[in-house]
Design goal:
- This protein is an all-alpha fold.
- About 55% of the residues lie in helices and about 0% in strands.
- It contains five helices and no strands.
- Helix 1 packs across helix 5 and helix 2 packs across helix 4.
């Protein structure tokens, strides 16, 4: 039994689909940006901060570029070498993450997560 009629079923999305997919920033990218901004804001070099933190220059560079996921010990050492606490770096990263993702949350709407609305 074969039918040549096209499938005319209509799909109704349960959530609004954004026009262009928004890529969520990765935590390591955000933290790296915070560390780099703090370092350059102080006019310091990678070498200076890496030596003060007792980590290698290439590793600090990769952390700043979001290529490496640093441990809390490495982040704390880098933060201390910049005159910051680990909490300061994480708070700045949270603020940056919130700023970067705010437009994508607004596009989804203000309905609580888990709510589904179907139209007949």
């Amino acid at each position: 039994m074969s039918s040549s009629a096209p499938n005319s079923a209509r799909v109704i999305p349960l959530r609004p689909v954004p026009a262009t997919p928004v890529r969520e920033p990765l935590w390591r990218d955000v933290v790296g940006d915070v560390l780099r901004r703090a370092r350059t804001g102080q006019g310091r070099t990678l070498k200076d901060v890496a030596e003060a933190a007792r980590i290698s220059v290439p590793y600090l560079s990769e952390v700043e570029r979001g290529r490496k996921e640093a441990s809390s010990e490495v982040l704390a050492a880098a933060a201390r070498s910049l005159g910051l606490g680990l909490g300061d770096v994480l708070s700045l990263a949270q603020d940056e993450l919130t700023r970067r993702t705010a437009p994508s949350r607004a596009a989804v709407g203000r309905r609580p997560m888990g709510e589904v609305r179907l139209a007949a």
